[in-house]
Amino acid sequence: MSAETPARIVEADVAVIGLGPVGALISNLxxxxxxxxxxxxxxxxxMQVPRGVGIDGEIMRAMQSLGLAHELEPFLKVFRGxxxxxxxxxVVATRPPANPEGEQGWPDRYNVHQPEFEAVLRTALRKDPRxxxxxxxxxxxxxxxxxxxQVTATDLRDGSxxxxxxxxxxxxxxxxxxxxxxxxxxxxxxxxxxxxxxADFVVTEDADVPPINTHYADPVSPAIYIHVVRDxxxxxxxxxxxxxxxxxxxxxxxxxxxxxxxxxxxxxxxRGAVYTHRSLxxxxxxxxxxxxxxxAAHQTPPFLGQxxxxxxxxxxxxxxxxxxxxHRGAPDALLDSYGAERSAHxxxxxxxxxxxxxxxxxxxxxxxxxxxSRIGRxxxxxxxxLGPGLFDDANGGGYRAPQPRTAEGRLLDDVVGYExxxxxxxxxxxxxxxxxxxxxxxxxxxxVVADGPxxxxxxxxxxxxxxxxxxxxxxxxxxxxxxxxxxxxxxEESLAPQAAVAAS
Length: 504
Description:
It is a single chain. By secondary structure, the protein is α+β, with helices and mostly antiparallel strands. It folds into three domains: about 10-75 and about 105-185 and about 280-360, FAD/NAD(P)-binding domain (3-Layer(bba) Sandwich); about 190-280, D-Amino Acid Oxidase, subunit A, domain 2 (D-Amino Acid Oxidase, Chain A, domain 2, 2-Layer Sandwich); about 395-504, 3-Layer(aba) Sandwich (Glutaredoxin). Helices cover about 30% and strands about 25% of the residues. It is built from 16 helices and 23 strands. It has helices spanning about 20-30, 55-65, 70, 115-125, 180-185, 245-250, 250-255, 305-325, 335-360, 365-375, 410-415, 425-430, 435-440, 450-460, 480-495, 495-504, and strands at about 10-15, 35-40, 55, 75-80, 80-85, 90-95, 110, 130-135, 135-145, 150-155, 160-170, 185-205, 215, 225, 230-240, 265-280, 285, 290, 300, 420-425, 445-450, 465-470, 475-480. Strands 1, 2, 8, 9, 10, 11, 17 and 18 form an eight-stranded mixed β-sheet that branches. Helix 1 (about 20-30) links the parallel strand 1 (about 10-15) and strand 2 (about 35-40). Helix 1 runs parallel beside helix 8. The longest helix has 23 residues, at about 335-360.
């Protein structure tokens, strides 16, 4: 290809760099919200290697927002529980299996084979005419311009140059993110730097392996066994000090390591790899019209099973903001609250996971239970709050919202879509004037008069109303109708200040 070959120009509302699970999800959410997307990735297709193995009910709500939850369900296994063993093999702590339907409207925890999760997202992307997928394209530069963003890439099939012109760009391009380097963001390091040997197997019915996820304590090299899905199993071993990592993943050495559980007679080794677990969060999530998400913004140790989940939360938090800025008159400053909220939230999971990992050499029930409760697991403790951002701090905002059903059995998100929701009890709804109701229904909120479990949840909270954001976090909960009126007005002014002023 000649150096003079003119670059192919592709235009879109948003360029998404990196089409792993976070990039694929945010591309779907943006297109679902009516934006045009160019999605770029260096690889020709999904990487068919096991990586993430856990998602939760919150992530199923994200898939529900796209109408993809039921397409994903057949590939999932509802979490069956976990146990933590000490060095002598005694069980010191456990986690129960997931309930059939948790507060998010789905089981609280699943095991998943990440390539299958990604395949559901990619299939949906390829059906959407608003998405231009540029695979086998290596991004070489990302630059803010007067009009938005310019992404420069090379088509790896023939070496031809491509330039994507967009209003915004989202870098979801992993731990080696060129987008992060382009905006000069650096990681804040929370001190973890541990190599682990990870081996994935397909087992036969004769394999004598635990029925649930198991953490094995060892003062030098703790191990984790994960019952992934179907016949896929994973073993993870913390590398011993000064261990030869290249030799450690040789098949004969992996088989020796797992010999107390399985052998070549009852299992097939799919892959051995070294994963270096780190605990990192970027110091800047945005520069101009370029934003970061997923592993480009943070790296999470796997001990809580929250790495993939944390990236999906980024996508849910960012997509509606981009939609509202680009299509609904919201101020560009709305995007600043994305990084402030997500940074603190991700940091909570990352530091908790790091502490949990440190317990695996010598676990105690008190320490394990305490750390799991820090993220509100299995109904214990409280889920973490977002960092400062777009919610009513004085009225319970910033926490994850439940997803109650209506009296007819419909889940709340199916009623409101990927929008703000005002869940209001019947008596309060009757107190709205016709003008107030009309104004609410013409604005950013979807009004839902609570009945059935939704009404019961409001009563349980001793409130009459809750405003739920599109990313399923609470904007606020309210005890009086005047408080609701003030909150609606404040939200309208934050999302579309000129329209709010005109309306009032």
